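Record format v2
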Amino acid sequence: MEYAIEMNHIVQRFAEKEVLRGIDLKIHKGEIFGLLGPSGAGKTTLIKILTGQLDQTGGEALLLGKNTRKLQEVHQRLGMMMDQFGLYERLSCYDNLKLFTKIYDVEEKRVEKALKKTGLFEDRKCPAMKLSKGMRSRLSLARAFLAEPEVIFLDEPTTGLDPATAAEIHKLILEEQNRGATVFLTTHNMEEAYKLCNHVALLNEGSIVEYGEPEEVCRRYNHQKKLLIRLYDGKQLELPNDRKAAETVKEYLEEERLETIHSTEPSLETVFMELTGRRFE
Amino acid sequence: MIKHIAAVFWKQIKDTLKNKETLIQFVMFPVMAMIMEKAIKVDGLPSGYFANMFSAMYVGMAPLVSVAAVIAEEKEKNTLRVLMMSGVKPVEYLLGVGSYIWFACIAGALVLGMAGNYRGKGLAVFLGVMAVGILTSLLIGAAIGTLSRNQMMATSLMVPVMLIFAFLPMLANFNETIKKAARFAYSQQVGVLLGQIGTLDRFHVSFENTMVIGMNMIIALLVFRYAYRRSGLA
Ligand SMILES: Nc1ncnc2c1ncn2[C@@H]1O[C@H](COP(=O)(O)OP(=O)(O)OP(=O)(O)O)[C@@H](O)[C@H]1O
Ligand SMILES: [Mg+2]
């Protein structure tokens, strides 16, 4: 089995509203997969279906080879962090994790290790309700990783966090991948998707409108092909990215007037703005 | 199975120790009964009168309110979903929470029994009656918790139910009409049974006692089943 998750034409309707309109995706084992899409696109809904929390209207999905409509026995092999963290507010960080070592029937020693890894060891006695947003994310992440699951679902793991905290979380996610886990995450942050994911898919209005490696997706939309040039005197120029520009660029270089030069490859952000016609929140 | 139940049980102990509102539920009536029994001596009032009255109220209130509140909070905070997603089955969860609250309430009942000066066989019968009453109350609380989407809904459902069960037995002492209606409440039947313990050799469980308590349990289970079928536990 080479795929961790397989989706076959998943459809989800809520009353009249068709939220997912036939999703076909395959997530490779051991990869970090990023599901991108504007707010309300149906990302959380898809995660709920894949984790067996929601029975989809149509289509089938396999998680580790098991039909997601009847997921049992795979719970141990599954870690997740939903958009609502689901922490026990009055329990300490330590106890929040200890509870799950009991449920997963793994050694309590893992709690200390997990707290140290996520930088929460100093605050281990602090009740969850007194934690900052970043700390809550990290605690929730520590819990998702506790059973060393094979597949991890992370619904917006870094939304609302400062760049430094987000970077720490990226590091933790990469560590899980190195351990061999498959990670399925959703995000609004294109830079994050670009850096972290092996494959990304863009979900818009219930359909997958783009799929591929982040770089490949960006390149596919590189139809502008321009060079942006800035000179020391503050002047900015846009040149076509071809032979004709070579002379001009050479001149500026020889005259030592060239301050910066950029090619305008689209970022994931511009690609997705083009595809969705709106800006990400 | 047992490990999951034990884990939920452990979580509940930890949580109660940090949760003053639930703690008050468990200790308020036993403490009040102690004080009343010590402070108020009226001629002709049978021994254990206040203890019995508070015990019936306790049975109508504490288990019901705590179970419903715990389930509703876990739903609202999404922790119940996390438990289910970690492989805890609904029945394991309910047994964990239920058994914990049952034991906590039995501890409260022990205090109530001592307040009522029950000893030996009397105390055993008292605890037996309380155990059944607490179980009924637990089932009603579980039904309310499962029915509610969040804490607010749980509160608005449990307050009237709790008021009926907790106060009917007391009000029944003062009004014949209320007394007739109260017969259909398990808490009233618990009160009636407790009232017989003073004259232990004449203690017996009547058909009406069994029927009413049994019916209350069955109704709670039916409501629970309806709520559970509709939307599951989480
Ligand atoms: N239980 C439900 N009943 C009815 N509609 C729902 C339900 N759950 C989700 N929806 C609708 O489905 C759509 C997709 O929601 P979803 O939460 O999956 O979006 P999302 O991509 O996760 O958005 P965000 O980025 O804001 O988290 C929304 O329009 C939402 O209103
Ligand atoms: Mg979402």
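Chain A touches chain B at residues 51-53, 75-76, 78, 80, 82, 84-91, 95, 99-100, 102-105, 127, 143, 147 (CB under 8 Å).
DSSP finds nine helices and 13 strands in chain A.
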